[in-house]
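We recall that each integer encodes one residue's backbone shape. We quote one record:
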Amino acid sequence: MWEDVFNALLQYERNNQRNQTQLNSALERFNLATSAMPDGLVILSASNEIEWCTPNAERQLGLNLTTDKSLPIVNLIRESHFIAYLYNGEYDEPFKLKSWRNAEMILEIKLVPFANNLKLLLCRDMTQLEKVEVMRRDFIANVSHELRTPLTVVGGFLETLTDMEGAVPENLKHYFAMMEEQTIRMRRIIEDLLTLSTIESNSEIPDNNVIDMHSLLKSVQNDALGLSQGLNKTKHKIHLNVDAALNLNGAQEELRSAFSNLVSNAIRYTPNGGEIFISWALRGDQPVFSVRDTGIGIEQKHIDRLAERFYRVDRSRSRETGGTGLGLSIVKHILIRHQAKLEISSELGVGSTFSAVFPKARIVRKPAPL
């Protein structure tokens, strides 16, 4: 009887040893796989203490698992943007962080919550990609600067020749008009490229002044009326609905550019006699600027790509209306600088609504008159 008991115990012990060997082997393979990944990985507890990390995370973030295990990560990474991101609780988008250990290294940090309030911190070295992006921006800015002067000269001569009596034969005047029109269009594209390049390369926090939104949007409405008439269209009906007590903290000229771009797009793609509705009000607890039109509308398949540089739904119509294909890219980057987002909804043949949704923290309430 005891022999059967001991045999059962021996078999149980062998099974345990086999399972332990398999677990050790699986753990070793897991460690090898994570060590081979170019990204750094850190597992954080519910209280943001370090439970485990890969060698790449140690190298990129300056951690040491042997000595730093169970320590709060904010004790070791004291960068204010990282701490704000960690405690903010909104991890939909990664953010870029300049390494405090190496001034030339740019890191992309993303937090992924998972079971039991744990978090997985992903860290990626973006240094080379950032260098390429800087080179791209510098190239665009330099080429645009170099093209602006000769185009101005060409445009000036075309305008002079057109205005000179008898300088251009009547049968050639329409060719000169086409050249002048295309020169103006190219100059407009270059100006937009320079604006976009300036915004993209500007890492400084934008001005944080109180903006009188009623005054700003009234000015945008007046500019829109002038544009409507300048496009040789029947005057659009441009409605303005502003919560006069609701102001905003931000860079006034940047936001004016963004709002004007959205309104001018609505005018360009709305038929003669159409209506434009400009609104500034709260949606829940967030301030929202929106432009709704009764224009041609946009197919759903195009909406996700509208803010890409030079992306056009209809190239021929964009040329007719004088669009550069950069307006929404400029709007998107200005809004990103103000922690805002661009929302687009549209129905083909009915119209479109473009909304700039700002964070609650940028609200400034105008005092009620005594």
